[in-house]
Model the fold of this input.
Amino acid sequence: SVVAGFGTHNIAMRNRLVTQLNKLAGDLNIQRAAAFQRADELTILNGLATIGVEATSVDTLIEDAVRVINSALHPDYFDIGLVDETSGMLRVFRSTSTSGSDRLVIPLGKGLTSQVLRTGKIQRIPDVSLEPDYFEVNPKTQSELCVPLKIGERMIGVINIENKKLNAFSDADERLMVTFADQLVIAIEKVRLFQQEQRHAQESETLRQAGTIVAATLEQDEAIERILVQLERVVPYDTASVQLLGEGYLEIVGGRGWSDSAAVVGMRFPIPGDNPNTVVIQERRALILADAPSVHAAFREGVHSHIHSFLGVPLIVGNQVIGMLAVDNAKPDFYTSDHARLVAAFADQVALAIQNARLFSEVQKLASTDSLTGLHNRHHFMELSKREFGRARRYQRPLAVIMIDIDHFKQVNDTYGHAAGDQVLKIVAERCRKTVRDIDILGRYGGEEFAALLLETSLEGAQIVAERLRHCVSEPAINLDGHSLTVTMSVGVTTLDERCTSLDILLVRADKALYLAKQAGRNRVSIWQE
Done:
């Protein structure tokens, strides 16, 4: 009985020992599983931290994150989806080792992901066959875990894991994916901020370079051409125009991208008027038309019929609106607030360049124009004439000079006063301007003397022009404070020949012919002779 009792005791001890060993083994298995899970978690987090530092784009970051998860957990199916608000789609980055394709695009309203994006809550589905919102992408899936990616309350995407077994995901799996989601969101934001800073830096440099190129000239036409070229670096367009504000209208002074720029340049739009330009000018703000033809009939016909998207931005200097930039695109709904922001920043720079060019042009005009008559002053007349004289000699082209002197002009001043004399000079100058061609050079040569250089004109032709000038000046009579005054003038004419080696010689010849006309009784045309 002692032996039997001892055996029974040994059996009991062995059973207790086996139980303890089994419990210890179970604890070790649990600890080992926890250790493996923790190792997986650390591997994933470490991998994410590494790619988060190295990634230069969100797409690259997500692709690398998918590979990290796949290599650490070896799921049946795994993907990360990012919301594309512009297209209303979910762009899905899939594990290439578990799927036939590495990219997928699905509508935001479809599938379990839509629930997660709508509610911001985790979805763990033990059996997808019982889930009405399940949208089958991967075959043989039986259970699914879907975790949101969110910044504050804004949903930017989802992490999705699917398994071929029922009820495959545990609380621990869910916690791991939540941790991963939190870290991934931080990495995405970091990359987006980096990209945004890079984009802003690039935009700033583009604007700086474009503004510098435009500001490097004081010639208005060249400045406008440079604006249109540089504008394409700032924002894409099919056609574009620079429009400057006049008295009650906007005028297109430069265009690019049009099949026939001549048909566009010079077009005027009434301000105010039924046009988008009025909104830009009067409200001093950028205006975007997503579908221009549906808003304004002018976009349905003529040279503007190709335009669907329109962006207009005012040109403002100080507190003064001087015009606008307009960019057009054949695609509807093309321009965004970002485009408007960039063009507005560019407009701030080029508006000053245009204003400087306009001021420079006015100064140049003042420096080269006779203030009383508006004709070329003597200095500018000589500069232009020297250039044409050289061209005519070089290419052996005909050239003529007409010298004009108002007869008895001193009597006009003595009888009616200098103010009346100034009025006579202005009227004579205007009549002469209307008689000669635009290509001819007409200037005020002295007090009551005028000179005209006639390009591509023979002696016979110059004589005809001179007679026409003489008649146009004398008729009709000029009214001076109730007094009718008939103005006559003496005219000398000469032409270029092989013995005339300088402009000064040509002018002296014309002056001598003028002297002959005066000597012969005035109010006549004389031709220079050797």
The radius of gyration is 43 Å. The mean pLDDT is 82.
